[in-house]
């Protein structure tokens, strides 16, 4: 007697990740809202709470299957940390320096205006 084997215990397919369009230190601006910022971290896909995602109005709610960026962000009034989907970001080509007070802790701006991650000396 032979046994029939069925493949029911397959591992789930690995999520497909897109390559992030912006890297650490990239200066970006929001495509709708008037703010800009510098990327300090990237999630390959959405990695925030469901509550946060559902709080975004449905007509502008981004897809979850794309890179999301942590930004040291600023607008005309204030500085803050933002979490933004790739579909809502554009490169900021203004060349204007950012004023966010957190930038100096993480980045150095070179003579060409490019932000590089600051070297961290061990404590």
From TrEMBL:
One of its GO terms (molecular function) is DNA binding. SUPFAM superfamilies: YccV-like. It comes from the Bacteria. The keyword Disulfide bond does not apply. Keywords: Stress response. Residues 19-118 form the Hemimethylated DNA-binding domain. Pfam families: YccV-like. NCBIfam families: yccV (TIGR02097). This is Heat shock protein HspQ. It comes from Methylobacterium radiodurans.
């Amino acid at each position: 007697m032979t046994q029939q084997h069925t493949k029911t215990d397959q591992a789930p397919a690995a999520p497909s990740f897109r390559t992030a369009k912006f890297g650490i230190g990239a200066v970006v601006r929001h495509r709708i809202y008037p703010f800009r910022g510098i990327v300090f971290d990237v999630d390959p896909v959405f990695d925030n709470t469901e509550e946060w995602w559902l709080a975004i109005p449905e007509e502008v709610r981004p897809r979850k299957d794309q890179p999301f960026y942590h930004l040291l962000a600023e607008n005309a009034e204030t500085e803050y940390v933002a979490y933004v989907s790739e579909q809502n970001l554009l490169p900021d080509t203004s060349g204007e320096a950012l004023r966010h007070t957190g930038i100096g802790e993480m980045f150095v701006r070179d003579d060409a205006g490019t932000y590089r991650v600051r070297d961290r000396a061990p404590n």
